[in-house]
Design a protein that fits this description.
about 100 residues; mainly alpha
Length: about 100
């Protein structure tokens, strides 16, 4: 059951769907922040947070992927675990910037 090709296909489809949603959110964040920069509305803390979040998310994603790999997870699960911090942060940024 664990190596069923349909299960793996479903797992990869979920990863692809999550990735697509994350990229749409990221595109919106980039557009909104670009407009903030162009109009002079971006604050210092927002700019600093924009830079610092990259390293923090990368470290978290790497840790989650490593933990999944160490526990023997399949490649789709490892990818999903690595993607989660990015997805969470982009959704959070979209919500914050829409206000």
């Amino acid at each position: 059951m664990k190596n069923n090709p349909m299960n793996m296909m479903t797992a990869w489809m979920k990863v692809a769907s999550s990735y697509n949603m994350m990229t749409l959110s990221a595109a919106e964040v980039i557009a909104r922040r670009t407009m903030m920069m162009a109009s002079g509305a971006m604050t210092g803390p927002e700019a600093m947070g924009m830079v610092m979040e990259k390293a923090t998310i990368f470290a978290t994603a790497t840790e989650r992927a490593a933990m999944a790999a160490a526990s023997g997870a399949n490649p789709a699960r490892i990818t999903s675990e690595a993607l989660k911090p990015y997805s969470t942060k982009t959704r959070s940024n979209v919500r914050k910037l829409r206000r």
